[in-house]
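User: My collaborator sent over this chain with a note saying "see what the structure looks like." That's all I know about it. Can you take a look?
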Amino acid sequence: MSHTPYPSSYYAASANPAPIRETLGSDVEADVCIVGAGYTGLSTALFLLEHGFRVVILEAAKVGFGASGRNGGQIVNSYSRDLDAVERSAGSDEARLIGAMAFEGGRIIRERVARYNIECDLKNGGVFAAFNPKQMHHLETQKALWERYGYDQLEMLDHNGIRNVVACERYTGGMLDHSGGHLHPLNLALGEAAAVESLGGVIYEQSPAIRIDRGSSPRVYTERGQVTAKFVIVAGNAYLGGLVPELAAKSMPCGTQVIATEPLDPELAAKLLPQDYCVEDCNYLLDYYRLSADNRLIYGGGVVYGARDPADVDSIIRPKMLKTFPQLHGIKTEFAWTGNFLLTLSRLPQVGRLGDNIYYSQGCSGHGVTYTHVAGKIIAEALRGQAERFDAFASLPHYPFPGGQTFSAPFSALGALYYSLRDRVGF
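Assistant: Without extra context I'll predict from the sequence alone. Here is the result:
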């Protein structure tokens, strides 16, 4: 059987020790079988185990192999499309419920870190940085929108205020989210996996699901074994492949790229980001960055539609980093990697059931760190008979990409080019 290691990223190189987990090699039974040991699967497993369910997780590679272990590590509230889009897409009751959940993911993460003593370099504070007055107006509108849902952790930053948190001359101003933050994403996944196992959950690695037999007692098959369960949770996101064809029809894997510098001199690091906040800009194709615990600048951005891996990630991202921080000329890039997230046309998550006992959540569209932890909670609630919040998400309409699977990537790239040009000229 093939063995799939972690990609060569800074996160894999600095990961906390983790056990070597078995490959499924027999037939087992559980209350719930979860496909995917990323944040969605791990979060769901923890909530279920805490309520007495027997849980087995099947992971095709290693815990956190996909987006959960490769992302920018930023805790960003709400969704990839904001609450005004939710209000337009959902009924008033559903929008109220989804809006109330927009700020829950970060709280769940912090609770998990505290309860299970997860070492993942958690820091507080996230900044949205604006390049022009139009983007500042958008941030002011966003602040009013979030406050309408009871969220009071936002602070507007003027020209001087943004320079107190990031040493970049390109920004007009910004907005600080005091309950945003950043962390080591792979170590969060590894810590959650350890918590799952401490509660009696079982995780099989190098055990890709190859078939699901549906019915009253669904079975999930791997090459060498199978899991029979009362419920199946499909949590593979961009790495699900063709396991469930109807879930692939209305989503598209996309790649994003990240680099990490060599460790910076502590004085230089403190000058770049004096408050040690994470930052993302307000462009459609945004850049995002933060400092690691050992003072590397982790910088990401860009989207490759269709999830092709670029030949040279550093050549794509390093110019963006130097445009933001010309102070880093001469600083080496030590790690460069790519990873896939799952995009939906609406940029809102896809949640639902297949029959009575197969549940899924996917399509975080770049906002997965926080949303996936909410997803785990609402799926667990639904399995316990409290489906109101799950059904609110399931009510959101979703549509296929123009051009179908053959032309969705180039059509999406053309749309992104249009918005990128708008960003550049500021209209």
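A starting point for your reply to your collaborator: The first strand starts at residue 27 and ends at 35.
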